[in-house]
Write a structure and sequence with these properties.
mainly alpha, Hydantoin permease, binds phenylalanine, Na/ntran_symport, SNS_sf, Sodium-dependent transporter, transport, membrane
Length: 459
């Protein structure tokens, strides 16, 4: 009885398998790949980080990606209803995941809006010689028209644009909205970002940057925090345990080769991440070269500071910096938008299914609500300050908790491991053996539990 009723096959569907794969890649490849991975890898052992990173990918990332796929595809719903169909009492886990999405979505939209403004600022290097002051004391002051000198391109207009875009795509639906958006944005992102990386590699000092990025610091492998960083990066980067992949997989056709598409998505995401590491560090190598110093002496190598302070600084010193800036900020926007839409679809579908309303209503309610909260919380400098706290709670603690609870519930309490594995294997070419249940049910919770304890202790 817990199975989805065949009667409700009016459910939306992806146009084709490629639509699903591109959308899943779009969700995975995001700000996390561009502004998080390079700095995290560098400060967690550089080249040596690739080892915990790969282990985290193979032992937890891909297995939990498969779990998300299996749940979404078998129970054909966004997280709250999908978990409810597995066991009535499990619905709150779905809402927890939806809640995480809500939180990530409201700041993600702000960052995309910043990147849109900075795309325009790249034309005339508007940030001047002191990008830090410009960003914090000028640009983010735009909430206050008296202080701000850049009201027109201030944060409010781009934020509104982001939310309008989200609304339009949501209303167009899974196949015609999200599917088409990714079909255009992902190839475009790959072209633009590749051009950026190639340009970066020809900058003087680029090779020193790569050296800094790749030279392994083996001692880092003895530090548990490095391992935690690797798992956290994999989870955030693959968008797993957030209910997104559950939602996206629920629109897959009944006969879909799921494990193979999962491997494609995971491989594409990690490749993009590595490419971003190369591009960012080649650029930082140039920055060190200009300042006559070492990459290790530089500061502000991740997150908003990397993108909106450090990069603007380098861009201003570079021949053809305007174009470089436009490529960089366009990449952030494209990567960000394709992730944000997955977040919005997750929240919107949860609401839609809970209240049995149509897609249009759910899309309107969710975008207006999230848009309002996002404008209210993130349109000023307080947003920049809130970002760290929000990021830590949702991306480090929330997501790990969600993954542990989801694994233990499905494998041990509901005992659905075998059923889900058979479901995954039914149409897939890459067969999942019993090892999958061991990874998801035992190794995953143990490693993640250890991580969570460590994180909480070091709060
Ligand atoms: N995977 C995205 C990134 O790397 C972030 C994300 C997390 C997107 C959760 C959707 C849901 O930036």
């Amino acid at each position: 009885t817990a199975m989805a009723q065949p009667a409700q096959e009016s459910r939306e569907q992806w146009n084709h398998q490629a639509g699903f794969i591109l959308a899943a890649i779009g969700s995975a490849v995001g700000l996390g790949n561009i502004w998080r991975f390079p700095g995290v890898a560098y400060s967690s052992g550089s080249g040596a980080f690739l080892i915990p990173y790969l282990i985290a990918l193979l032992t937890a990332g891909i297995p939990i990606l498969f779990l998300d796929y299996a749940i979404g595809h078998r129970f054909r719903a966004a997280p709250p209803l999908a978990f409810r169909r597995m066991a009535k009492w499990a619905e709150p886990l779905g809402w927890f995941q939806t809640g995480l999405l809500f939180v990530i979505g409201i700041y993600y939209a702000a960052v995309i809006a910043w990147a849109m403004s900075y795309f325009v600022f790249s034309f005339d290097l508007r940030w001047g010689d002191d990008p830090a002051t410009f960003f914090v004391s000028e640009y983010l002051q735009v909430g206050d028209p008296v202080v701000s000198t850049t009201p027109v391109w201030g944060v409010l207009i781009p934020m509104a644009l982001v939310w309008i875009l989200m609304l339009v795509v949501l209303l167009l639906g899974v196949a015609n909205g999200i599917g088409k958006l990714n079909m255009i944005f992902i190839p475009l992102l790959v072209v633009i970002f590749t051009a950026l990386v190639i340009r970066a590699l020809f900058l003087p000092g680029a090779l020193d940057g790569l050296d800094a990025f790749f030279t392994p610091d083996w001692a880092a492998l003895a530090d548990p925090n490095v391992w935690i960083a690797a798992y956290a990066q994999i989870f955030f980067s693959l968008s797993i345990a957030f209910g997104i992949m559950i939602t996206y997989a629920s629109y897959q056709r009944r006969k879909a080769n799921m494990t193979s598409s999962g491997l494609v998505v995971a491989f594409a995401n990690s490749s993009f991440e590595l490419l971003a590491g190369i591009g960012v560090f080649a650029t930082l190598g140039f920055m060190a070269h200009q300042a006559n110093t070492q990459v290790s002496e530089l500061e502000g190598l991740t997150g908003p500071i990397l993108s909106f302070v450090t990069f603007p600084k380098v861009i201003a010193e570079m021949p053809g910096g305007n174009i470089f800036g436009m490529l960089f900020f366009a990449s952030l926007v494209l990567a960000g938008v394709t992730s944000l839409i997955s977040i919005m679809q997750g929240v919107s579908a949860s609401v839609q299914e809970k209240f049995s309303i149509d897609r249009i209503k759910a899309g309107l309610i969710v975008s207006i609500l999230m848009g309002a909260v996002s404008l209210f919380l993130f349109s000023t400098t307080s947003g920049l300050i809130a970002l760290d706290t929000v990021d830590m709670w949702s991306n480090n603690i929330g997501i790990v908790l969600s993954a542990i609870v989801m694994s233990i519930l499905t494998i041990w309490i509901m005992r659905r491991g075998r059923e889900l594995r058979i479901h995954l294997n039914a149409v897939s070419t890459f067969k999942v053996g019993p090892w999958w249940t061991v990874l998801v049910g035992i190794l995953g919770p143990v490693v993640l539990g250890f991580m969570l304890v460590q994180r909480v202790i070091t709060l």
